[in-house]
Design goal:
Blueprint: E1 7-11, H1 15-24, E2 29-34, E3 38-40, H2 45-50, H3 54-58, E4 59-61, H4 62-70, E5 73-83, E6 88-93, E7 99-103, E8 106-109, E9 114-115, H5 132-136, H6 148-167, E10 171-175, H7 179-191, E11 196-200, H8 212-224, E12 228-230, H9 240-245, E13 254-257, E14 261-262, E15 308-310, E16 319-321, E17 324-327, H10 334-352, E18 370-373, E19 379-383, E20 393-397, H11 398-416, H12 420-430, E21 441-447, H13 463-467, E22 474-478, H14 480-487, H15 489-496, E23 507-509, E24 512-518
Parallel strand pairs: 1-2, 1-8, 2-5, 8-15, 10-11, 10-13, 11-12
Antiparallel strand pairs: 3-4, 5-6, 6-7, 9-14, 16-17, 18-19, 19-20, 21-22, 21-24, 23-24
Bound molecules: flavin-adenine dinucleotide.
């Protein structure tokens, strides 16, 4: 058909799927498939269980937003199988017992994951039970969380359970003092102050790999409000000594397990899924272009013809192995997921134009940002964390951090609803130049004999040096390829392997002799 656009299928319509739909809608016929009918802002969902009215502000129905506002197609159904050779997805749509087969030219898998690795298919309060496999073994089979009304009923049930626990002044054990466990304990404490809370973790302190400053801040908060903490303590519910150790000799009236993720990529062929990884593996292997690959033990090559991508929580999160990382594990949080979604969209657009130079993804700066709320009026915000334990800095805390979390929540949901305030705020976070902080090379360039920033600027004949400004000779954010195109191979060679803060050797171009410093 003349003028027909290529078809792009998005599996999952939450953070990453929503991002891709907005990004691709102009150039592709986009179809979004989601197993549930609604968007839910996962980072805010704990508050909904202790204050159910909050659910309304976290959720919206997907169909009107996708079809009427964005102008893409939405299918409410579960993808049961993805066929890479035929480029089709087998979908069980709602209210039908038959399977539909949907064709595509490109596909981005944005299907996220489950939480709660102790349950057979992974199940937790934090993520609705939507997959057929999961619903069959669910602890809340009587509720169908694919419907927003089902989700609301689940939230209300849990709320009433907490109310009863509060009336009884019951004991509650939270297993896992990562950010979800800490947030859940402090939410319960704030809204149900008569519940007696204990939190444990097998690590020596809370908040896992985050910096000591943040862990101490959260510990102090929990201590001040009477939440008992036990660290270096594994969960061993069948052992009476375990209960004695955590000063609950008669056990707890209720236990919430707040640890870990579990893959839910049931629709993918086994040879694309990891044997290892959190929750026993099952994560989608991918390469630096975010294309789905077969597992390394089967050669690690691109799966299908390279037109299928996997982004966000559903993928393996890392490339390589410990000690030999090509890309170290990226935390399963929304910012890096959206960053990957952006890179995958760029690659889909390039493939559609028959371009071969695909974007390589990188560790995004936002992968190091963690906001942990401590009830509604306190929080701490860490930036700059990476894969090393204890890395990052607590840069905001107390009421300002709680406010920051609220602002993020409100504006992010606004963006996902395709409303302009949210779009205006978040667009620039994921697009050039801000998103390049994660990896692009910021270079200040000086010409002719100048080696120290600013000092001998009048000797420089370089146009960038003459521009002046706060960073004299600042070239801005450039990727090595762009550097090569603009200044020639010698400069890009000299700059290529620099780490932030390092200076290059002398390098010449048609404009003269330069020395560079990579500044970020
Ligand atoms: C309690 C909690 C607090 C969090 N707090 C934060 C935070 O403060 N900051 C932060 O950045 N991140 C936070 N996260 C993590 C964040 O929510 C996730 O990283 C993010 O939701 C991942 O987005 P995604 O698009 O990859 O997947 P998801 O949001 O999981 O969306 C996947 C979608 O795919 C659909 N789907 C799955 N399988 C199929 C299928 N077979 N067919 C059709 N549809 C399917 C699902 O229904 C779902 O709607 C938190 C997570 C939890 C649980």
């Amino acid at each position: 058909m003349p003028g027909a656009k290529p078809r792009c299928l998005l599996i999952g319509g939450q953070f990453t799927g929503n991002f891709c739909a907005r990004e691709l809608k102009k150039q592709f016929y986009v179809t979004v498939i989601d197993a549930k009918e609604y968007f839910e802002y996962t980072p805010g969902v704990l508050r909904a269980f202790v204050r159910p009215a909050h659910l309304d502000s976290l959720t919206f129905t997907l169909q009107p937003v996708y079809e009427r506002k964005m102008g893409v197609k939405f299918i409410w159904g579960e993808v049961k199988e993805l066929n890479g050779d035929r480029k089709t997805a087998i979908v069980k749509t709602m209210f039908s017992n038959n399977m539909d087969e949907i064709g595509f030219d490109y596909c981005i898998i944005c299907s996220g994951c489950n939480f709660g690795p102790f349950k057979p298919m992974g199940e937790s309060l934090w993520f609705p039970t939507v997959h057929e496999e999961g619903r069959a073994v669910s602890d809340w089979k009587h509720i169908d969380e694919r419907f927003l009304e089902g989700r609301r009923r689940h939230v209300l049930e849990e709320y009433h359970k907490l109310q009863d626990l509060n009336k009884k002044k019951a004991t509650v054990l939270i297993v896992g003092a990562g950010f979800i466990g800490v947030e859940w304990a402090t939410e319960i404490e704030h809204f149900f102050p008569d519940v007696k809370l204990t939190i444990i973790d097998f690590l020596p302190r809370c908040l896992g790999p985050l910096p000591d400053s943040a862990a101490n801040y959260c510990s102090e908060y929990m201590n001040a409000c009477g939440i008992k903490e036990f660290y270096s303590c594994g969960y061993d519910p069948k052992n009476p000594d375990f209960w004695k150790k955590i000063e609950l000799p008669n056990g707890a009236d209720e236990t919430y397990v707040c640890i870990g993720v579990k893959a839910s990529n049931y629709f993918m062929p086994k040879n694309t899924l990891s044997d290892k990884g959190p929750g026993g593996g099952g994560w989608i292997h991918f390469n630096k272009h975010l294309q789905v690959t077969v597992k390394p033990s089967e050669g690690g090559g691109v799966w299908a013809d390279g037109s299928i991508f996997a982004v966000g929580d559903c993928n393996y999160g890392c490339i390589g192995e410990p000690g030999k990382w090509e890309m170290p594990p990226v935390p399963k949080i929304s910012y890096p997921g959206e960053e990957q979604a952006y890179h995958a969209c760029l690659n889909v657009m390039r493939l559609a134009k028959n371009q071969k130079n695909l974007v390589k993804t990188w560790w995004p700066w936002g992968a190091g940002m963690f906001a942990t709320s401590l009830g509604p009026h306190d929080a701490c915000f860490v930036a700059g964390a990476n894969e090393n334990k204890g890395s990052g800095y607590m840069v905001n805390w107390w009421i300002p951090a709680a406010l920051q979390k609220e602002i993020i929540e409100t504006t992010k949901i606004d963006e996902c609803r395709d409303c302009w305030i949210g779009i205006l705020i978040w667009h620039f976070v994921h697009h050039t130049p801000v998103h390049l902080f994660g990896r692009a090379v910021g270079l200040s360039g000086f010409a002719k004999w100048v080696v120290i920033a600013g000092k001998n600027i009048d000797l420089s004949e370089c146009t960038t040096a003459q521009k002046g400004g706060g960073m004299i000779g600042d070239l801005g954010w450039l990727q090595p390829d762009e550097l090569k195109n603009r200044f020639g191979p010698a400069l890009s060679e000299a700059a290529k392997n620099l780490q932030p803060g390092q200076w290059s050797d002398l390098a010449s171009s048609e404009m003269g002799i330069h020395i560079f410093q990579r500044i970020a």
